[in-house]
Every structure is written in structure tokens, then in C-alpha cells.
Specification:
The complex is a heterodimer.
Chain A (H helix, E strand, L loop, with lengths): L4 E3 L2 E4 L5 E6 L6 E8 L3 E9 L2 E5 L6 E5 L5 E5 L8 E8 L11 E2 L3 E5 L1
Parallel strand pairs in A: 2-11
Antiparallel strand pairs in A: 1-3, 3-8, 4-5, 4-9, 5-6, 7-8, 9-10, 9-11
Chain B lengths: L2 E3 L4 E5 L4 E3 L2 E3 L5 E8 L6 E7 L7 E2 L2 E6 L4 E6 L8 E9 L6 E3 L3 E6 L1
Parallel strand pairs in B: 2-12
Antiparallel strand pairs in B: 1-4, 3-9, 5-6, 5-10, 7-8, 8-9, 10-11, 10-12
Classes of the chains: A mainly beta, B mainly beta.
């Protein structure tokens, strides 16, 4: 099976702009999670989508939003970009359907966003 | 919220030697899952090993094994016969069995393998 893919791989934006990142999960996986990775904060959970519904949400401002389509592909949007949004954004997918599951997450290569 | 702590920002090991990476976590839950992920430089994160909290037996995957001490809330990773390809950032992660598919990660340990 093909792995998790993310596009684009690199992005440069300026403050105040908005950006949309895309993630295609492994075929058959219905859960997609997004993480922000920075040197200072490590990996921080943004949100998780399952069957087009946001199921979990981390502690990020409303400028960060996402959605999932019927084919399980997911997009993440950041509006009014700030310098501090510069990070590697990772997407992870899993088959996960129920809480008591040992299913793990499989990560994509990430999108590196630089905000100038 | 659960917290995961990796107290060793950097570690180094001689090729073919053994190294242990530390991880502790804080939780009030009794049922959860623990993971070690590896992120090589400029490459994507991959799963190394995972452990179910209800299992007393420590997980093992080839040269990788864990020392899971539930009472102490400790989950260390042992890499035996270290290879150059083991050089990477290693992340410890926690996932609740009750609150959904949200992973909590430590800040990572950068492992250098010395030839």
C-alpha cells in the first residue's frame, strides 16, 4: 500500500496570508490526525478527523481548522499566518475505529511551512 | 492532559553497542498504549515499537526492546547492536485507551551513532 502523502512538501508564506495543506491517508484508513512540530514545542496535536467529523481537538487557536472529505483525504487550513506558525506539519492516518484499539498511527513526510 | 517526558535531549552510542533511551509519563488512567517513534533526519516518522499497558510482558522488535514499568510510569527503549541507520530523533508517545485517537509526544531524544 502507498503510505501517507502530504502536499506540498514546502511552503513559504508571509504574515497575514492563509495556507491550506493536504493529506492523503493510507488506503482504507479513515482516521486522520494533524500535528505541528517545532524545535521548541516538539509535536503538538492539532486535531483528528474520522468519517468527515472532527473527533478530537488540541489547544490551538481558531485560526487552525481542518476538514475531511468522503474519500478520507484531509486538509488543514491556517488563516492570518503568524511568524510562530513556522513549523513542520505532520499528518498521520490510522484504521482506528473504536476507542479500545491498539491501532497505531502512520505518519506522512510532513509539510514544512515557513512564514516570513 | 497527559504529559510525556524525555529527559535526554541527546544521546550517543558506539556502533554495535547498546543504548537506552528514557521516557516517563504522567497519567491517572490504567489502560493506555505507549509507542516509540523514530524520525531520521529529513525523513518521515516511523513506528519502532509499541506496548499495551495491560500487558506485563515487555515488547520486543528485533534489536529494539522496551522496559515498561507501569507503577513507575516509565517506558524506556533499548537498542542493541546499534547501527549507523539507527541515528535519528526518537519520540516516546502515549495514547489513551479511553479518550480517543490523540497521541501525546515527548520532546524527543536525538541519537548519534559513532562509527
Amino acid at each position: 500500500k502507498a503510505g501517507v502523502t502530504q502536499t506540498p512538501r514546502y511552503l513559504i508564506k508571509t504574515r497575514g496570508q492563509q495556507v491550506t495543506l493536504s493529506c492523503s491517508p493510507i488506503s482504507g484508513h479513515r482516521s486522520v490526525s494533524w500535528y505541528q512540530q517545532t524545535p521548541g514545542q516538539g509535536l503538538q496535536f492539532l486535531f483528528e478527523y474520522f468519517s468527515e467529523t472532527q473527533r478530537n481537538k488540541g489547544n490551538f487557536p481558531g485560526r487552525f481548522s481542518g476538514r475531511q472529505f468522503s474519500n478520507s483525504r484531509s486538509e488543514m487550513n491556517v488563516s492570518t499566518l503568524e511568524l510562530g506558525d513556522s513549523a513542520l506539519y505532520l499528518c498521520a492516518s490510522s484504521f482506528y475505529q473504536r476507542v479500545l484499539s491498539q491501532e497505531t498511527q502512520y505518519f506522512g513526510p510532513g509539510t514544512r511551512l515557513l512564514v516570513l | 492532559a497527559q504529559t510525556v517526558t524525555q529527559s535526554q535531549p541527546e544521546m550517543s552510542v558506539q556502533e554495535a553497542e547498546t543504548v537506552t533511551l528514557s521516557c516517563t509519563y504522567d497519567t491517572s488512567e490504567s489502560d493506555y498504549y505507549l509507542f516509540w517513534y523514530k524520525q531520521p533526519p529529513s525523513r518521515q516518522m516511523i513506528l519502532v515499537i509499541r506496548q499495551e499497558a495491560y500487558k506485563q510482558q515487555n515488547a520486543t522488535e528485533n534489536r529494539f526492546s522496551v522496559n515498561f514499568q507501569k507503577a513507575a510510569k516509565s517506558f524506556s527503549l533499548k537498542i542493541s547492536d546499534s547501527q549507523l541507520g539507527d541515528a535519528a530523533m526518537y519520540f516516546c508517545a502515549y495514547r489513551s485507551a479511553a479518550t480517543g485517537n490523540q497521541f501525546y509526544f515527548g520532546t524527543g531524544t536525538s541519537l548519534t551513532v559513532i562509527p
